[in-house]
Amino acid sequence: MKAKKSFGQHFLKEETISQRIAHSLIHLERYNHILEVGPGMGMLTKYLLQIPDHQLTVVEADTDMVDYLKEHYKELSGHIISDDFLKVNLSDYYKDQQFAIIGNFPYNISSQIMIKALDNRDNVPEVVGMFQKEVAERIAAGPGSKEYGVLSVLMQAYYDIKYLFTVKPGSFNPPPKVMSGVIALSRKANYRELGCNDHLFRTIVKAAFNQRRKMLRNSLKPFLAKEIIENDSFYELRPEQLSVQQFVFLTNQVEAFREKDSN
């Protein structure tokens, strides 16, 4: 089986790395189901199948790989979703059940995979994934770093994130042109208590980073009154300087202004 560029495929070939990724699921008591995204020829799948008392389901967009999995992993019978993960309605398969998401994610859609996990956070207590190294670092980055951005803030608002280890190109066939990184996300115990309007929070974070080199008083002009943003030194900050809690504060400021303005 050859990797296909159209699917962004790079097959992991080192068993020890596959084992290490599988063993990075550390909150198994929180769920009974595991969903692997992009299993390819099953290098990671074989180790996930060894986890006791957990039902593994895989979602694979490449029909050739689906046929390969059906032939070589009979224990996956009835638990192979032949579809694009981004198009799958996860509630059709899990309803209100908890499940982990794991995989050697296709790098061209890895950020979108994270946003989908975020949108399903009520059912996803844990995520472990291999990403392009710079994307993994971006998700895990803290305030004040050049990597810190929209994905950092949105994911860290609901998940604790840990950068686990780096994987060199030679560990894949064919080798990618970039380094890879594995991270683990654990849903926060108080993830439902963000402290502000979730939808508005996402809007404000995106608006702020849309002009990341500018001060907040410039990027947030459409959201707050001129006299507010020009008379408070807080709005002299740039988005990469703000913690998640400061973005929560900012969201509440915008919501309070909107309510006052509507009255």
Task: Give start-end ranges of low-pLDDT stretches.
Answer: none
| Number of self-contained structural domains | 2
Radius of gyration: 20 Å
Q: What is the CATH architecture descriptor of the largest domain? A: 3-Layer(aba) Sandwich
How would you spell out the order of helices and strands?
A: EHEHEHEHEHEHHEEEHHHH
Which features does this protein show?
alpha/beta; Rossmann fold; 2 domains; two-stranded antiparallel ribbon; 11 helices; elongated
Structure report:
- There is one protein chain.
- The chain has 2 domains: 5-187, Rossmann fold; 198-262, rRNA adenine dimethylase, C-terminal domain (Helicase, Ruva Protein, domain 3, Orthogonal Bundle).
- Helix 8 packs across helix 11.
- The strands form 2 sheets. A 7-stranded mixed beta sheet has the order 4-3-2-5-6-9-7, with helices on both faces.
- 35% of the residues lie in helices and 18% in strands.
- It has helices at 15-22, 45-48, 63-72, 91-94, 110-119, 133-140, 150-156, 198-210, 216-219, 226-230, 244-262, and strands at 11-12, 33-37, 55-60, 80-82, 99-104, 126-132, 159-167, 172-173, 180-187.
- With 263 residues, the chain is α/β, with parallel strands linked by helices.
